[in-house]
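Page 37, continued from 36.
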């Protein structure tokens, strides 16, 4: 619910938890339009939050658009949002998440997860991750959901990420910077309000 303040499109009302014994794997799935998180009943090291947060984010965050973007893009978004959530709510469990989830996933060969994760980090530092990138992806999901998969969607998301990365790294006062993004699905522009701020 706290995260939904930054990400209004997160489906926080659609989640429920089912406790399982330690012999079963933790997992998440959607049933009757509700996210079901299966977590171990015994949790002596307070790790249910870590596993539950990742399972919830990976199942519910931008679920409409995820089918249409690349696996690397999906994974980078899920890993980044979960990392930030755990840093904020359970900082004492960050190391566990980094060791068990983040680092193993970013080290995968033949994957662009690490590249996208770094770009998202830059975008977030620029202040454009939650209010712009995630909102644009949510809007994109509404446009393409139910349609056939289209490689153009993957390319456009990559271009949007590159665009926002460039905006985040622009030199203050750069008058030559192009604030317009024109894609097949997303057509948006940013207007500088002051020397160091922009409006989407």
């Amino acid at each position: 619910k706290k995260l939904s303040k930054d990400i209004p499109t997160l489906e926080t009302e659609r989640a429920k938890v089912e406790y399982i014994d330690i012999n079963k794997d933790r997992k998440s799935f959607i049933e009757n339009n509700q996210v079901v998180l299966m977590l171990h009943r015994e949790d002596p090291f307070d790790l249910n939050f870590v596993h539950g947060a990742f399972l919830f984010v990976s199942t519910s965050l931008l679920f409409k658009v995820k089918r249409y973007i690349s696996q690397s893009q999906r994974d980078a978004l899920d890993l980044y949002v979960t990392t930030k959530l755990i840093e904020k709510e359970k900082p004492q469990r960050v190391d566990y998440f980094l060791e068990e989830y983040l680092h193993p996933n970013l080290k995968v060969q033949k994957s662009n997860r690490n590249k996208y994760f770094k770009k998202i980090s830059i975008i977030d530092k620029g202040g454009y991750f939650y209010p712009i990138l995630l909102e644009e992806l949510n809007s994109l999901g509404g446009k393409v959901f139910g349609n056939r998969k289209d490689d153009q969607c993957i390319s456009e998301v990559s271009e949007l990420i590159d665009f926002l990365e460039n905006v985040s790294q622009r030199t203050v006062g750069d008058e030559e910077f192009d604030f317009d993004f024109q894609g097949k699905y997303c057509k948006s522009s940013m207007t500088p309000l002051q020397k160091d701020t922009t409006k989407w």
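The beta strands are 15-20, 27-31, 34-40, 180-182, 187-189, 191-194, 197-199. Flag for discussion at group meeting. Residues 8 and 150 are 26 Å apart (CA to CA).
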